[in-house]
Amino acid sequence: MATLLRSKLTNVATSVSNKSQAKMSGMFARMGFQAATDEEAVGFAHCDDLDMEHRQGLQMDILKSEGGEEGAESPLEGDIHYQRDGTGPLPPSASKEAGVCSELSGQGKPKITAWEAGWNVTNAIQGMFVLGLPYAILHGGYLGLFLIIFAAVVCCYTGKILIACLYEENEDGEIVRVRDSYVDIANACCAPRFPTLGGRVVNVAQIIELVMTCILYVVVSGNLMYNSFPNLPVSQKSWSIIATAVLLPCAFLKNLKAVSKFSLLCTLAHFVINILVIAYCLSRARDWAWDKVKFYIDVKKFPISIGIIVFSYTSQIFLPSLEGNMQNPKEFHCMMNWTHIAACILKGLFALVAYLTWADETKEVITDNLPSTIRAVVNIFLVAKALLSYPLPFFAAVEVLERSLFQDGNRAFFPNCYGGDGRLKSWGLTLRCALVVFTLLMAIYVPHFALLMGLTGSLTGAGLCFLLPSLFHLKLLWRKLLWHHVFFDVAIFVIGGICSVSGFIHSLEGLIEAFRTNAED
């Protein structure tokens, strides 16, 4: 009797503890990761946590349904694929933890509303990199404005068709979700000959975009500080080194809870800064240079502008996880519509108003055009936001690299970088520090915000937002597509391919020239 009573008390205590942890996790998920995404890279970091919770919940549902049947055989290794990397069953401990969470929460994981999902997408496509859009108008005129609208329409459409690729019709004619992530869709398209090729391509593109985002944060930090205090005997390269020294502790990050607490404040501060810039521009409305906005393009630099605009809209990589965690996935299409309409209007107005104010003097980062009296204050806030945003894409890139190269079971290329006690080995920590130093070296040798942003948008942005979604949609669902859907997919693939190649070539030429110039200096 005493043993039974002790067991019940232990179970009650464990339930209370787990319930409080589940509530705290839900609070962090809502107030931290979901309400705090700064750029598209934040979506990647958030994607891992959502995927883990979502797939563990599905894993426990399958285990319970199979375990509830009498005489049912235990699942074989590799039979259950609803987990983080889709390569085999979860460890017993992970399954038990997921089971406890699913029993306590009732749903297996915290769900988000359409408004919360829209907040994620809005922050991903309305982030700090909109500061480069006026520079795109400088080289594109009205065609640049049209491209902002066109990119919004295309990215909204490709986001929807990417989610459609997650579903298939079962034997009963019902539409069911059979895939969980962008990687799963890519692998399904390359199966059965190359079942993991598609996922590796998506992972490589994801890593490139994340690392380039980190480099851009270092570049913009050095640029803003240098232009805020031009009288100090400190060069832009030196400011970048100082920023990297501040960021070096990112190599020791174990999770993002500490960083996520500041992210919401940073995002709100960024919106305030945008409003301040627009307010200053409106105060000079009488001097707007409407005659400078023409139907012309700079043939050499406009392709770079394409990459800048596309990069500012990238959010596709984390949409599958976001849709899978919505309370009502049927509201996903409506959410995508209003978020991209809002983004299109705000970006177009911001870019046009800022360009009309400074015309041909528009700089790569628009805040550098502000008067010195307010430039320093605004730029310091932006630098703080950039430094606090850096850990999110950095941590996501590290997770993808570690999972792909060091923790992928028998398919890992290198030994596990974690010891038996779960601690990071010294050489693993060294590799993390090397990644931070690599972002610094790139920022020093190529300190050009617009060129780096254009290159990233043309290479990975166009691929993840234009080319791959349309290609996957045609490959997986071509038998059920109407003719106009086929036409749209083919047109997006062709146009996206042309823009991607053109922008990549011109951005790469500009970067090579800048690299040579800096090397000579």
From TrEMBL:
Membrane topology field: Multi-pass membrane protein
Gene Ontology CC annotations of this record: cytoplasmic vesicle membrane; inhibitory synapse; presynapse; vacuolar membrane
Region (Disordered): 67-94
Subcellular location as annotated: Cytoplasmic vesicle membrane; Presynapse
GO biological process: gamma-aminobutyric acid import; neurotransmitter transport
InterPro entries in the record: AA_transpt_TM
Transmembrane domains' residue ranges: 143-167, 207-226, 262-282, 302-322, 334-356, 376-401, 429-446, 452-474, 486-505
Full protein name: Vesicular inhibitory amino acid transporter
Chain's gene name: Slc32a1_0
